[in-house]
Amino acid sequence: MKTLSPKGMKWLKFFHVLCAICWIGSAFGMNVLKHFIDTTVPEGRYILSLAIKLLDDELIYIGVSGCLITGIIYGCCTKWGFFKHQWLTLKWILTFVMIVLGTFIIGPAVTGNVHPDLEWYTTNLSEYTRNMSVTAWWGGSQIIILLIVLYLSVFKPTKKKNNAKV
User: Fold this and answer.
1) pTM to 2 decimal places
2) Please, what sign has the CA dihedral across residues 112, 141, 153, 97?
């Protein structure tokens, strides 16, 4: 299999890190917004729900897709492979866990809270609150997993040490 040139590796790393920034930054943003928007009124609930949905639809999807695509390129076109190291295998497992959580748990809760009719935010307050609890709990869990993946990427804790003398 053909491997990337050093310049190609730098570009791959650039795009992988950029996509990770989109993913992690948006995940933090989705959770931080909850503390700065007044949700005691229907308008605030709508604005918060819409802002979270926009971050989810635009930046999270770009970050996730980009990390997945660049990760596949790393696996196919570099010496790292897909499962050559334990830390790399764990990154793949955690990435797929986050994709499943985002697709089947967080995403529907985010989408379920966006309604242009402001009356919905008054008549369906329990559903709104439940959806916000789901996004807070699982969104927070996803941030923790993202930070673990970031840690694995930087420190590569199970990587075999090179015993060559320097």
Assistant:
1) 0.88
2) negative
Mean pLDDT of 114-142: 96
Distance CA(1)–CA(124), nearest Å, equals 56
DSSP letter for 41, please.
S
Region 142-152 average pLDDT = 96
CA dihedral 47, 51, 54, 58 (to 10 degrees): 160
For 59, the enclosing helix (H) or strand (E) is: none
pLDDT tens digits, 104-114: 999 999 999 99
Residue carrying the six token digits 């967080």:
106
The span from the CA of 74 to the CA of 134, in Å, is 33
The pLDDT value recorded for residue 158 is: 74
Amino acid at 84: K
Using alpha carbons, list the distances in angstroms from residue 152 to 45, 92, 93, 95: 36, 11, 12, 12
Helices marked H in the chain — which ranges? 6-32, 42-54, 61-77, 86-101, 107-111, 120-123, 125-155
Torsion sign, CA atoms 53, 146, 134, 122 = negative
